[in-house]
Design goal:
disordered C terminus, rod-shaped, 3 domains, 11 helices, 5-stranded mixed β-sheet, Heat Shock Protein 90, Helix Hairpins, alpha+beta
Length: 478
């Protein structure tokens, strides 16, 4: 049953739930109403029985005061408008019918009244013909040892209750049907935005069109509106991600085309020389081989950069991060920078700082920053490196970056017009920004503050000047 219910459409389930809730409420109200009315009717009948008590004069005309027996003919009994039945009983348990046609079975409560053990008694009883009665037994002042038991049939009450039950069943049934119809209407109206969302999702799945947007009222803040806004935000993010992916592929293809073209040209020259038997001069041959080697190195670096940027931008990988001594990473990058720029003077002021990051990614980011400083520094120039309180600054004395180009320096494949003749793919600073942001820090490039010119790269990383007491550099999850 539950499985079948869950297989129904959502609007059908909502309509059924509404109908079930209303049915329960209406049924509970009808049952409560029926019992209340029954109690009122029975109480009214009880009050009528109490109000019509017989007095001494009325009873004595039916009783022989010496013998205690009824004096009227037992085969002729008075009747009344309400088909009441009145019996007399004494302490010995004898009884006689003085009004009515059928005796009503007497109970211990009735005998207790006749014996003087109770003042009166009120209860239900059954007549000889099976009729249900409401019985009231009481004593009459001045007539000891005799009790009067008056009974009225419950048919008048049961008839009213049966009519009321029919009315309640009809009203309850109409209410349940109406509630089901109203629930279905409400479900359709309430789920109309969900239907629009479903159609939009199906359209996106069928056409991969991420420009679809669901209209949402600005002042609406219900669950459906929030869901619609989330869907619109998701499709916008997916569209932006796809555009960035396509742009990355296009830019990568453009960047790969140049070294591949140069490689193919150089290899064709070497191959043609071998095929024709016309040797290339040794100096030219060495230059061609050096160019091939340089182009292969550039390709390898570009592919590595693309692999790094192809990773999701969702934070660091928990299995690769650990506590790093940033000063050691900077020292290692400085050694490589001094090898690449032996003609430069690189000064360093390095103080301890420990961060949580991916070792290889952080080292690559620091190397990229120093490579840029070496690349743009004039021959014999100076590069100043300082690490203190989690702030790494690298200052060169090169031509600097124009102010209008600063907003683009961390874009993928972006290269300054003045630097396009220099080696590089334009991905280095993108990798730096990505790595620093994943480590919870920030990186900026700005012109040097003094007239000497140059650029200052500033990296701020959260951490501490001392390692944690439980530092374990071999544990990837430290």
């Amino acid at each position: 049953m539950i499985r079948r219910f869950r297989s129904l459409p959502l609007r059908s389930r909502l309509a059924l739930l509404v109908a079930a809730a209303v049915a329960f409420a209406v049924t509970a109200a009808a049952v409560a109403c029926w019992f209340v009315v029954k109690n009122v009717l029975v109480n009214s009948l009880d009050e009528a029985l109490r109000a019509n008590r017989m007095n001494l004069a009325q009873v004595t005309q039916y009783v022989n005061l010496n013998t205690g027996l009824c004096v009227n003919d037992p085969n002729v009994h008075e009747t009344n408008l309400f088909n009441s039945t009145v019996q007399l009983l004494d302490r010995q348990g004898q009884s006689c019918l003085i009004i009515g046609t059928e005796k009503v079975a007497l109970t211990n409560a009735d005998h207790a009244v006749a014996e003087g053990r109770a003042v009166d008694a009120l209860h239900d009883a059954t007549g000889a013909d099976g009729t249900k009665y409401r019985v009231y037994t009481y004593t009459v002042r001045g007539l000891p040892g005799v009790a009067v038991s008056a009974a009225r049939p419950l048919g008048e009450v049961n008839s009213s209750l049966n009519n009321l039950a029919l009315v309640l069943v009809f009203v309850a049934g109409a209410g349940v049907v109406g509630a089901g119809a109203a629930g279905l209407w409400v479900a359709r109206a309430g789920l109309r935005p969900v239907d629009e969302l479903t159609r939009a999702v199906e359209h996106v799945a069928r056409t991969e069109d991420l420009t679809v947007r669901i209209p949402v009222e600005d002042d609406s803040d219900d669950e459906v509106a929030r869901l619609s806004r989330s869907f619109n935000s998701m499709t916008s993010s997916l569209a932006s991600s796809r555009d960035l992916q396509q742009q990355l592929i296009a830019d990568a293809g453009h960047e790969l085309r140049t070294p591949l073209t140069s490689l193919r040209t150089n290899i064709e020259l070497l191959s043609r020389s071998e095929e024709t038997g016309r040797p290339i001069p040794e100096a030219d041959r060495k230059a061609l081989l050096a160019s091939v080697k340089a182009q292969m190195t550039e390709l390898a670096a570009l592919i590595g950069d693309l692999q790094e940027l192809s990773r999701p931008d969702t934070g660091q990988h928990a299995g690769r991060t650990r506590i790093l001594a940033l000063q050691d990473v900077v020292e290692s990058a400085l050694r490589r920078a001094r090898l690449r720029g032996p003609e430069l003077t690189i000064t360093a002021d390095i103080r301890p700082w420990y961060v949580r990051a991916e070792p290889s990614a952080m080292e690559r980011a620091v190397v990229n920053i120093l490579d840029n400083a070496v690349k743009f520094s004039p021959e014999g120039g100076t590069v100043d490196v300082r690490l203190a309180d989690g702030v790494l600054t690298v200052r060169d004395h090169g031509p600097g970056i124009p102010t209008e180009e600063l907003p683009h320096v961390f874009d993928r494949f972006w290269r300054s017009p003045s630097a396009r003749a220099l080696p590089g793919s334009g991905l280095g600073l993108s990798i730096v920004a990505r790595t620093v942001h994943q480590a919870g820090g920030e990186v900026t490039l700005s012109p040097a503050p003094d007239p000497a010119g140059g650029t200052v790269a500033t990296v701020r990383l959260p951490g501490a000047p001392v390692p944690p007491p439980d530092l374990d550099t071999t544990d990837g999850d430290a």
